[in-house]
Amino acid sequence: MxxxxxxTIFINLLAFLxxxxxxxxxxxxxxSDEPKGNDExxxxxxxxxxxxIGLLASQTGGLESYGKQTIQGFELGxxxxxxxxxxxxxxxxxxxxxxxxxKPEVAxxxxxxxxxxxxxxxxxxxxxxxxxxxxLPLAEEYEKIMVVEPAVADSITGSEFNKYIxxxxxxxSQDAVAGAAAIAGEGVKIATLAPDYSFGRDGVAAFKEAAxxxxxxxxxxxxxxxxxxxxxxxxxxxxxxxxxxxxxVWAGANSPxxxxxxxxxxEKGIKISTGAPDIPxxxxxxxxxxxxxxxxxxxxxxxxxxxxxxxDEHKKRFNGDVPDLFTPGGxxxxxAIVEALKKTEGDTNADTLISTMEGMSFETPKxxxxxxxxxxxxxxxxxxxxxxKKDGVPYPVPVLIxxxxxxxxxxxxxx
Length: 415
Fold this sequence. Notes:
This protein folds into 2 domains: about 50-170 and about 300-380, Rossmann fold; about 175-295 and about 385-410, Response regulator (Rossmann fold, 3-Layer(aba) Sandwich), CATH 3.40.50. About 40% of the residues lie in helices and about 20% in strands. The protein has 13 helices and 16 strands. The chain has helices at about 5-35, 65-80, 105-115, 130-140, 170-185, 200-215, 230-240, 255-260, 280, 305-315, 325-345, 350-355, 405-410, and strands at about 50-55, 85-90, 90-100, 120-125, 145-150, 165, 190-195, 215-225, 245-250, 270-275, 290-295, 360-365, 365-370, 380, 380-390, 395-405. It has a 7-stranded mixed β-sheet, with helices on both faces. The longest helix has 28 residues, at about 5-35. The chain is globular, with a radius of gyration of 29 Å. Mean pLDDT is about 90; it is low at about 5-10 and about 15-35.
């Protein structure tokens, strides 16, 4: 056998050493990437931190009853959507409620506290359009999803819209389409009465647009102090304008119905039309029995399983009381959040939620709602109704004429 040269031996030895070092390095890297005693690759640790929701509502002030309804509906909605577990994707849900006092400056303070001190993942609210409009910029600044309920001013999903805003509440234009369909026609003369702030002015503007398209003539617009208790001069101006109809946009405990009856507006040949309000306000509308208008919700109008659950559970928990005007809205907001989190598997990243919620449909006490991608407004049903007396009920009851489907009540895109 031929004897190898020293040079050949050196080269072979060097090659062997390089292969050995490479193998050791590869083995070391594999060991550092894998958990000891486990052949499976490491998995990312799942987030089990609580999901925090900050709920802004009027627990005091002129819209206190609306805030109460929203809170009750939201809490029931979370229970329904999570099947009683109060968690989604392995994360517990915590709700922190703050009273806006129906004051925009307080709403901003409370929202800031929720975002900075409580580090909430979502904002929900508020009862007042004024409060809500003041808070919208904070959702954008802190990059948190805000589900608007029950505020209805068009500008929320219109001129003041930002991509973090989603609204389960209907807006003024949806009300307007339903209200105009009930009374407007060629040559019909209509006067309006509304509170003098964004809710009232947006509502009248939207109604006017819809009514004029149907050929009606708006002969007078009257705006009253939102805190007023005396509407005499407002109503007299309406009477002087001699309309065929008075269309009223109103919210709050200080409603004008008693004075409209006292001043015998209907006896002067002026028919009244409005959205059927909450139950306490219905109790003041005895003089308006026979009026045709629309309803956002009355507990026996929607016929579906979720509404049946809501009515039954509400009666059990609140001394036999039925859910009122804004209870299903609170429930719908809760369901929307839970359904979105189910789809993201508990991920609360705002961009992930936005892409998930745009176009998302979900079931509510009012049937199917869908977040319209263009402005995040929930398309939903409203109800054409007539006020009638019903045995055993101490107030005029909204009786269904027909359900106005989401495609019928879809408002203009205004953003």
